[in-house]
Specification:
single chain; 21 strands; 508 residues; six-stranded antiparallel β-sheet; alpha+beta
Length: 508
């Protein structure tokens, strides 16, 4: 075995973080016992015993934990009662994330998370809970140096300079992103519900109800007053969401080179994520209705094996742009996956009819029920809902489009959230062609492109039969020799691929 490129253990202050974590996790149980019939001295003694026993356990845990990068792999040894050893080949590491929560930043420490998940599973990642910043950077550079294929005896020194910055989010855009995104505006509502439930658990719900009644008595009644109160609450929620976005993504910047994508963000808790660009399978530009009104958009990358905890957007996705003007967002997406801005082909007129029919179906059924019940308000409401959903259906039809050229497949659909996805045609592991009886009568098909490594699937909705063949040929040249138009929706093509090739799944 050659000498380790990087070797070390957790920082000694990790013992302090471990002990404080034990106390923090025990606080809910301690509070529950404090208000119960258990003697107060017993609660204090139990908490003190947890702290006294936690410190030597944390010391032993720190002493047993070691890691090293040697012979092209990362080796980690640890455990107190049960010893464990974990080995990760460096070429299997998808990404390296560096987190600095507030306490870590105060102590000058960093938490390093190594992604080696085959399908984006959080359980597959490895975390170094508290290391010095220099040690975390050395580990990250060792992984990057191996990816670069360095033949030098010192891959850390051979690691290239940090990639150039591709995008930086302005504070104004972050505030707007929080105000128009449910991701942040629902947090205050959930927080209030959580606090109310906690008060109930501790038997203080009666006090909370009396407080609410007193506040309600202080608020003037009447239609105007209720409207103003609701408007004030809405403003408070929007402000809270905007501030939440600013705190979470403050200083967001994206850097990129031919090998890496690096994102950094956070005010109180700073986080850096490095993803292997070879694992990028596509990009996605999204616009909600408010975002379309402001002519802004967000963007993310589909990265194979990225765990669900990364960037808080689900497994296999890395945020590239929290929110920016649409042209700027599309420029970033084009820089990551060239060809994503290709002109889209329109779908057949039957697709527009189907979008409208599907949008109006539920409110139309409600209108029929309202007429049967002979309730004027329900009839009026259902009629308005039908008119509104016709507009939504037309908007969904305008959003439909696709392109398949230059090694990239692009698909766009959606109304409340419009998504434009650009996929590398070499990334899919399977293709599914689907058609319902209604689609077969109208000459329509739906193509689902299944990506690997936890990225999920993407859909091309309501294609014409003559449009399916070029898409399948672009995604996988062997899949279909000529598009079929059999009444049952089947496709005539070449036989299933041999072992090691990508596959496709026909379905009716």
């Amino acid at each position: 075995m050659t000498a380790p490129v990087v070797a070390g253990r957790l920082h000694p202050l990790s013992v302090l973080l471990f002990s404080t974590g034990l106390v923090r996790n025990a606080l809910p149980a301690v509070l529950a016992l404090w208000i119960s019939s258990v003697p107060r001295w017993a609660v204090v003694a139990a908490l003190a015993a947890a702290v006294v026993l936690g410190i030597p356990y944390g010391l032993l845990r720190w002493w047993r934990f070691r890691y090293q990068v040697v012979d092209g792999r990362l080796e980690v040894d640890g455990g107190v009662l049960v010893r464990h050893r974990r080995v990760m080949p460096l070429e299997r590491i998808r990404a390296v994330s560096l987190d600095e929560p507030p306490v870590h930043r105060l102590l000058g420490l960093t938490r390093a998370r190594i992604e080696a998940a085959a399908a984006g599973s959080v359980k597959s990642e490895l975390a170094l809970s508290a290391v010095s910043r220099s040690a975390a950077v050395a580990l990250q550079r060792a992984v990057d140096g191996h990816r670069a294929g360095s033949s030098s005896g010192d891959p850390i020194a051979a690691t290239p300079a940090p990639p150039p910055m591709l995008h930086r989010a302005s504070p104004g855009m972050l505030l707007l992103a929080g105000a128009i995104s449910l991701r942040y505006t629902l947090v205050p509502i959930g927080l209030v519900g959580g606090v109310w439930g906690t008060l109930g658990d501790f038997g203080l719900d009666g006090l909370a109800e009396r407080t609410v009644r007193r506040l309600g008595g202080a608020v003037p009644h009447g239609t105007t007053s209720v409207g103003l109160t609701l408007a004030l609450l809405a403003i408070v929620v929007l402000i809270a969401g905007a501030l939440g976005s600013l705190i979470s993504d403050f200083g967001f910047r994206l850097s990129a080179d031919p090998r890496r994508l690096v994102t950094e963000r956070g005010l109180l808790s700073r986080r850096s994520t490095t993803a292997n660009r070879a694992r990028v399978q596509g990009v996605e530009v999204t616009q909600s209705l408010p975002a379309r009104a402001f002519r802004v958009a967000a963007a993310g990358a589909a990265v194979g094996g990225l765990a669900a905890s990364d960037e808080s957007v689900g497994g296999g996705r890395l945020r590239l742009v929290p929110l920016a003007p649409r042209d700027a967002t599309e420029a970033v997406a084009e820089a990551i996956v060239p060809g994503q801005s290709a002109a889209l082909a329109a779908h057949p007129p039957a697709a527009r009819t189907r979008r409208i029919t599907r949008a109006v179906a539920i409110p139309a059924a409600g209108l029929v029920v309202s007429v049967v019940l002979q309730h004027p308000w329900l009839v009026a409401g259902s009629a308005l809902a039908c008119v509104a959903m016709i507009a939504v259906g037309l908007d969904r039809a305008r959003s439909l489009g696709h392109a398949a050229t230059g090694g990239v497949v692009v698909t766009r659909h959606g109304s409340f959230v419009r998504r434009r996805s650009a996929l590398d045609s070499a990334s899919p592991v399977a293709i599914s062609v689907r058609s319902t009886p209604w689609q077969r009568r109208r000459g329509l098909r739906e193509v689902r492109i299944h990506m690997g490594l936890g990225v999920g699937s993407r859909r091309i909705i309501d294609l014409g039969v003559d449009q399916v063949g070029p898409v399948l040929d672009q995604v996988s040249r062997w899949a279909v020799s000529s598009p079929g138009n059999a009444p049952d929706g089947s496709f005539r093509g070449s036989p299933p691929p041999s072992s090691g090739q990508r596959g496709w799944i026909p379905s009716s």
